[in-house]
Amino acid sequence: xxxxxxALPFALLPLAVAYAxxxxxxxxxxxxxxxxxxxxxxxxxxxGNTLELELDSPAMNLVGFEHAxxxxxxxxxxxxVRQQLEQPxxxxxxxxxxxxxxxxxxxxxxxxxxxxxxxxDGDEHEHDHPHSxxxxxxxxxCANPDKLAQVDLAPLFKxxxxxxxxNVQLIGPNGQKGVETTxxxxxxxx
Length: 190
Description:
The chain is α+β, with helices and mostly antiparallel strands and about 190 residues long. The chain has one domain (about 1-20, about 35-190). The chain is built from 6 helices and 8 strands, in the order H-H-E-E-H-H-H-E-E-E-H-E-E-E. The protein has helices at about 1-10, 15-20, 60-65, 70-85, 90, 155-160, and strands at about 40-45, 50-60, 100-110, 135-140, 150, 165-170, 175-180, 185-190. The longest helix has 14 residues, at about 70-85.
């Protein structure tokens, strides 16, 4: 299943190119993986009973900063966000009838001490600080995947109000598609 999720960016490359022209905050390097405050990415793959969700967001959207947590307040904020991310069934609104249960999760960020300190491409803002991202990968098993018609991202937007847009790429029983979600339009149909 992990191979399927890793293949998602290649399968949806034409959709990613379509999104690239809509980037209103490009950091002058034109890459598709641009670090953009307020914008996160979500890959969702439904394959049989398995639902994989992979969220990638600038740390700014989730914790409100990107520097290493040194003060007690910063450390508390990072710990609180990590605790929220450890509960995917509270962040992603899945139909109860689908009966999805979490199997695995992996959280990665320099703020959690388990990822590189800056973007691999050396991308830095004019403010001369490195960008920190937070990645979350979840694998769930759904007893009734045919009841999984949609994913509601409203709880995610509510938990992290600095997130203004989530670019979603889906692969499911009805094929593949890319969808842009906002707090006002937070539901994605498979």
